[in-house]
Amino acid sequence: MLFALDFFIRRIAQGLVLVVLVAMLIFTLLRVVPGDPVRMMLGPMVSASVAELTAKEMGLRDPIPAQFGRYVAQILTGDFGSSFVRSAQGGSTGGSRGGSTFDAANRASVLGLITTSLPYSLLLAGLAFLFALGIALPIGIPAGLRSGRWPDRLALHVASVLVSLPNVWLALVLIFLVSAKAGWLTAIGYQGLSYAILPALVLAIELAPTLIRSISVSVSGNLLEPYVSQGEIRGLSRSRMIVAHVLRNSSIPVLNVLGIQAIGLLLGGLFVVEYVFNYPGVGLLMINAVFQRDFPVIQAIAILACAALVMVNILVDFAAMAIDRRLPY
Question: pTM for this structure?
Answer without folding.
Answer: 0.79
